[in-house]
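Please predict the structure of the following assembly.
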Amino acid sequence: MIEVHGLTRRYAERLAVADVSFQVGAGELLALVGDSGSGKTTTLKMINRLVEPDAGRVTIEGRDVASLDPHVLRRSIGYVFQAIGLFPHMTVAQNLAVPLGLLGWSRERIDARVTELLALVELAPGLATRFPAGLSGGEQQRVGVARALAASPHVMLLDEPFGALDPLTRDRVQRSFDGLRRRLGLAAVFVTHDMAEAVMLADRIGVMRAGRLVQIGTPAELARAPVDDDVARLLDTPRRQARLVAERLGGGT
Amino acid sequence: MSGPLSEQLALLPEYLSAHVRLTLAALAAGTLVAVPAGILAHRVRRLEGPVLGVAGIVQTVPALALLAVMVPLLSGLGLPGIGTLPALLALVLYSLLPILRNTVTGLHGLDPAVLEAARGVGMTPSQRLRLVELPLALPVIVAGIRTATAWTVGMATLSTPVGAPSLGNFIFSGLQTRNSAAILTGCVAAAGLALVLDLLVRTIARGCALQRRRPIVLALLGLAALAAWAFAPAPRVARGAVGRTLVVGAKTFTEQYVLAEILAGTVHERAHHGARTLSSLGSTVAFDALRRDEIDLYVDYTGTLWASVMGRTDAGPGRQEMEDALRRWLQDEAGVTLVARLGFENAYCFAVRRETAERLELRTLSDAARHAGELSLASDYEFFARQEWRSVEARYGLAFRDKRTMDPSLLYQAIASGQVDAITAYSSDSRIRTLDLVVLEDEKGAIPPYDAVVLASPRLARESPEVLAALRTLDGAIGIDTMRALNGRVDEGRETPAAAAESFLAVRRKQR
Ligand SMILES: Nc1ncnc2c1ncn2[C@@H]1O[C@H](COP(=O)(O)OP(=O)(O)O)[C@@H](O)[C@H]1O
Ligand SMILES: [Mg+2]
C-alpha cells in the first residue's frame, strides 16, 4: 500500500531523515517512535509531499507520488497534524466540508457526510455550528481526525494526534480510533513518542534515531529481539510502568 | 446666522457629492491596487522591500505637496493637469501605503499550523489564498482600509487648489472670505463623512469576522447608496445658454472669486454662453491650465505675469510698455489672448499701522529700510519666493528683524492685533482703508505695475470671438474704488462673492 525506499532529507548540513525504507500494507498501522528531533514528522510529510525528499521514493498503491500533482495527492490522503490546524474562521461543519468541497462534492452530499463524520468521532451534532475556538482540546483533536477521514481515504498519516489530551479523554479517543481504523481498513502511519500508545495501537513499530530507522517489527518481535540496548529499554518502558502502577495500587504479588 | 449658513448649506450637495466621488473612487482604486500588490509582496519576498519602500516614500511627501507635483507631472505627460485626475491620482497614491502594509502584515502574521493544514488537505496555492489566507488576514486588511479612508477623506479637502471640487471649497473660500459659516460647513461635513464611511467599513469588517451576512449586506447597501447618490448625474442648471459651458478660473483670494463671477455673468448676459467658475486654483496652476485649454478665462495681473510667467527679473518698463510687451509675448509664446484691462491695479505694497508710521516717521520704503531691523514683516506664501521681493530687497536693502508667511486672509488680523509690524498688502484690498494702514511708497519703482487683465485660452479665442467681444466691454470698467468696494462687501460685509458680483452686474445692466 505505502512503500518508502531510501527516503533522505537534509536541512543545511543536518540529516533530518537518512535512508529510511519501510512498507505498510492495507489495513495496517505502523507506529513511528523515537526521541524528538529524530525525523518522524519529516518522514511523514515526505509521504504526502508536504516536504520534498532529497533522495528516495514513495509509492502509494503502486504509484510514485512524485508523478502526481501534490494537491491531488494530498486530497487522497488523510493527515492529522500535531498542531491540529483547524481553520479558525470556519465552523466545525465548514472545516469538515473543506476536503469534500475540494473534491467537488455537492452541497447535499457534503451535509450528509458531515453528520456522519461527527458521529464517527463521537462528537455531538450540536458542535457543527461552533467555531474551533469554542471547543475543548479533545474536541478539536477529534475534529482534526474527522477532517482527515472526511474523504474516506485509504491512507492516513497521523502526527502525535493525541498528544495534547488529558489521560481520560486520550484513552477514550485512542480506543475509538483503534476501532475506526480497523473497521475502515486504513493503511496508517502514526507518529508518537509514547511507547505505550505505540504498543497498544500499532501492528508494527518503527524506531527512529537521529534520522535513521534503527529497527522495525511487531511489538512482540521488538521485545524479543531488540537490535540494541536503547530499543530494549524503549520496549521495556510500558511494561515497567504497568508493573509499577500495579504495585502502587496494591494489586501486585 | 441663518442667512450665511443656509447659503453654505445650499452648496453642500454639490461639494459633498464631489467629495464622496473623489474619496470612494480613490479608495476603490487604492484597494484594487494595494491588496494584489500586498499579496505579491507577501508571496515574492524579494519584492516586499521595494514595494513597501516606494509606498513609504510616497507617504512622507506632505499631502499638499503630492497634490501640487501632480499638476506639472500630468501636464508633462500630456494629460489634464488640473481637475479630478491629479487629485484622484494623489489620493490613490496616498491610500496605498496603509492598505499595502496591512495586507502584507496580515498575511505574514497567519498561524503556520493553519497554513500547513491548508496545504495538507490539498488546497492549491490560489485556493489557499482565497479560502484561508485572505479571510484570515481580512480584519487586518480592513483596518488598513479604515486608516486609508480617514486619510483620504481628510486629504480630499486639499484637492480644491488643483481644480477638483470637494468639501475643501468651503474651507478654502471660507478662509479667504473670512466666512466662518463656510469653514464650519466644510469641517463638519468632512468629519461626518469620515465617520459614516468608517462606520460602514467597520461594519463590513465585523460582519466578516463574525461571519454574519446581514451587517455586511447592509453596509454594502449603504456604500452603494452613497455611491449612487454621488455618481448620479447632477441636474444641469441650464441658464438658457448656447454652446459649451465655459470655465472661469479663480486663484485663492476674494477678488479673484468676485472677478470670476463677474466674468461668468458677463459672458452669460452678453454672449449667451453658459459659464461656471472653478475657484481656488494655485497661482501658476491657473496660467498653465489656461494655456492648455483646461480653463477658458481668468484674471491675472501684469506684474505677476511679467515676473512669474515671462520669468523677467527686472522691474519692467512703464505701464503701457509692459502691457504691450505682455500682450505680444502671451500671444506668441502661449497662444493666450490678453482680452481687456479692467482698470485697477492690485499690486503688492508694504503697509504698516498708522501708529507705527507716525512713531518712526515712515513714508517710503527707504524710510522703512532705515528701521527694518526693528520691524517684523508678514507676507503670503508666494511673495518671498518672487522676483519682486528680491528686487525690493536689493534696491532698498531691506533687512527685517523677522519674516513670516501666513495665509493672506490672516495678514490683516496679524497687523491689526500688533503681532507683526508690517505686512505685504494688496492695493485693492478694502481693509487698508478700514484698518487705517499706511502704504509705504515704492519711490524707486522696484515693484512693477500690477494691472488686472482678463486672459483667454487659445481655444476660446479660436472658437468664440463673440465671448471675447463681450468681455472687452469690461475694459476699464472696474476702477480701484469699485474693486475695493466689491472686495469689502465680501471680506467685511460677509456677502458671498456671487452676491457682490451680482451687485456690480446689476448696475451695468441698468446702464445698458
Ligand atoms: N523546516 C525545517 N528547517 C530546518 N530544520 C528542520 C526543519 N524541519 C525539521 N528540521 C530538523 O530536522 C530534524 C528532524 O525533525 P522532525 O522530523 O520534526 O523530528 P521529530 O518529528 O521526530 O521530532 C530536527 O533536527 C529538526 O530540527
Ligand atoms: Mg514531530
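Residues A 11, 14, 16, 34, 36-42 surround adenosine-5'-diphosphate (ligand 1) (CB under 6 Å). The first helix of chain A runs from residue 40 to 47.
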